[in-house]
Design a protein that fits this description.
- The complex is a heterodimer.
- By secondary structure, chain A is an alpha/beta fold.
- In chain A, 41% of the residues lie in helices and 21% in strands.
- Chain A has 10 helices and 11 strands.
- Chain A is elongated and about 60 Å long.
- The termini of chain A are far apart.
- Chain B has 2 domains: 2-44; 48-294, MetI-like fold (Orthogonal Bundle), CATH 1.10.3720.10.
- Chain B has a two-stranded antiparallel sheet with strand order 1-2.
- In chain B, strand 1 and strand 2 (65-66) form a beta hairpin.
- Classes of the chains: A alpha/beta, B mainly alpha.
- The interface between A and B is large, with 36 and 38 residues.
């Protein structure tokens, strides 16, 4: 019996010590859209500040904000502003979310490279996703059905699409749903009839990015506001960031940090 | 003195086992409790009828719609089609390995089958996306190759090793006397397999199929990647579907905790539990009927 007690005590001590060792560390959790920025920035930041250890994990904007409210993460990453429900939850638990814009993301509408269509208006995009326009012919393409593909209803990317394109209309239940940005890119790249959307960082040569209302999706147009499908990416902290968190946020907003934003494929703030 | 020593020696393992077993039970009960606690609150905002029979799944709109009918149909359709494809193949494979092929081949096939049972489903899902989907689309000139057929083929591939391996165990366990008796009476090999081996191994074979079906109901990655994900009741095997599991996996990550959407996803979990329970009960019933019919 005594031996068990000693053993248990030893394990408990170990756990407590480990907890103490992690106490000075910085935990980040949230949107997989912001994840590449946070990860690259954290690596660079830790290289020059070896006493700080940053753990970055991506579970989605909602999970990150939930973790911030529950106190299990120091910084939440989000690809959308906090919802009213989340703000009231935070208030109830005495958490004061502090919003920091870190980058601009532009959503791209994309089609298969073989598709002759290269420019669609916001109205046309909306009607395609509502299921009103069902054939590429109506858009200047071939006489073929459109395979509408999108993200799951709770992804931040879907939320942005819903807000900027759908304006309260519902996406047709016929739409194919994919669970990640990579899967949606893959779906469009493999299907000549498909249309989809993704953050600008994900777009590569396997698909064709569409102009929206004649405006090309690129950094200059997103920054100037000419490109209609762009959004801010956020970090949230509990109250104004302090200590290590402040150092990291300052680094991310510095010219060096904003260069990282550009390197991973997003658009820097300035 | 010696007796009490043995008794003590017995008592300790007995206690350990009791503690371990009750911990297991407690964890199961806790999971059930958690599932019900997180799933049932959705009933405050949507009736059971709306949830089960509603045909529109718009959980994030205002007002939200929580119709899970297409999702339930999606789960059942993928499971049924996958089982339809996989069970005959598995049983044929099991009969071949157990009854037909020479011992040396059997010793190669059996481990291969067992290893295939652990094939990572995400790899299969990826194959479905980049190989099967474009092929299906070209072959049948359809809207998308990510559909019921694609997911069912992959799911079938996933459950064949499980079902075949277990069914083979059941057939191999049939006493040799029975086979010898059948051959002595002049039966052909086919008659021996179909009239003697399979009927006597039936409970085991049924269990094997059941495990395969259960795996299909609960499988998430393959359907998430290959089924297309349209929340519609499929009209043909080439239509995209959206099973309950992939809905939970796709949406749970970003839904605000404590929202109706969150509760509805746990409710989908309860439905999955009910479906597997239903299949289990049905299988037990069939087995009992089968016993009576045979004996």
């Amino acid at each position: 019996m005594k031996r068990y007690l000693i053993g248990t005590a030893a394990v408990l001590c170990g756990v407590l010590l480990a907890g103490a060792a992690f106490a000075g560390d910085l935990k980040m959790n949230g949107s997989t859209t912001v994840l590449p920025i946070a990860q690259a920035a954290a690596e660079k930041f830790m290289a020059s500040n070896s006493d700080v250890k940053i753990t970055v994990s991506g579970g989605g904007s909602g999970n990150g904000i939930k973790a911030l409210i529950d106190g299990t993460t120091d910084i939440a990453m989000a690809s959308r502003p906090m919802k009213d429900k989340e703000k009231s939850d935070a208030e109830a638990k005495g958490v004061k979310p502090f919003e920091i814009k870190v980058a601009i993301d532009a959503l791209c509408a994309m089609v298969h490279p073989s598709n002759p269509v290269s420019d669609l208006s916001l109205e046309q995009l909306k009607e395609i996703y509502m299921g009103k326009i069902e054939n590429w012919k109506a858009l200047g393409g071939e006489e073929k059905a459109i395979a509408v593909a999108g993200r799951d209803t709770s992804s931040g990317t879907f939320g942005t699409w819903e807000e900027m394109v759908m304006h309260g209309e519902k996406v047709t239940p016929k739409a194919l749903v994919t669970a990640s940005a990579g899967a949606l890119l893959q779906t469009v790249a493999k299907n000549p009839l498909a249309i989809g959307y993704d953050g600008i960082a994900y777009i590569n040569d396997s698909v064709k990015a569409l102009k929206v209302g004649g405006v090309e999706a690129n950094a200059a147009n997103a920054k100037s506001g000419a490109y209609p499908l762009s959004r801010f990416l956020f970090l949230y902290t509990n109250g104004e960031p302090q200590g290590d968190a402040k150092a990291f946020v300052d680094y991310l907003l510095s010219p060096e940090g904003q260069k990282i934003v550009e390197q991973v494929g997003y658009i820097p703030l300035n | 003195m010696k007796d009490s020593d043995t008794l003590r020696g017995d008592r300790i393992p007995k206690r350990v086992i009791t503690v371990l077993a009750s911990t297991g039970m407690a964890i199961m009960l806790f999971i059930l409790y958690f599932l019900l606690r997180e799933g049932l609150p959705v009933l405050r905002h949507a009736s059971l009828g709306e949830l089960l029979l509603g045909s529109y799944w718009y959980p994030t709109y205002d007002p939200p719609e929580f119709g899970m009918f297409p999702l339930v149909v999606g789960s059942l359709a993928v499971t049924a089609l996958a089982s339809l494809l996989a069970v005959p193949v598995s049983l044929g494979l099991a009969a071949f390995i157990s009854e037909v092929c020479p011992r040396s081949l059997r010793e190669i096939f059996k481990p291969i089958l067992e290893v295939l049972g652990f094939f990572p489903s995400v790899v299969l899902g990826f194959i479905g996306m980049v190989v099967i989907a474009p092929w299906l689309q070209e072959r049948f000139s359809i809207l998308t190759g990510l559909n019921l057929m694609n997911a069912s083929i992959l799911m079938g591939i996933m459950i064949v090793p499980v079902v075949a391996s277990l069914a083979e165990d059941a057939m191999a366990a049939v006493p040799k006397d029975l086979r010898d008796a059948a051959y002595a009476l002049g039966s052909t090999r086919w008659e021996t397999i179909s009239r003697v081996v399979i009927p006597s191994a039936l409970p085991g074979i049924l269990q094997a199929c059941l495990l395969g079906v259960m795996r299909a109901v609960g499988e998430t990655m393959v359907v998430l990647m290959a089924s297309g994900g349209a929340a519609l009741v499929p009209r043909s095997v080439l239509d995209p579907v959206r099973p309950l599991t992939s809905t939970i996996a796709a949406e749970m990550g970003e839904t605000p905790v404590g929202s109706d959407h969150y509760f509805s996803l746990f409710f989908a979990g309860i439905l999955l539990l009910v479906i597997t329970l239903g299949i289990n009960v049905a299988a037990m019933w069939v087995e009992r009927r089968g016993m009576r019919w045979r004996g």
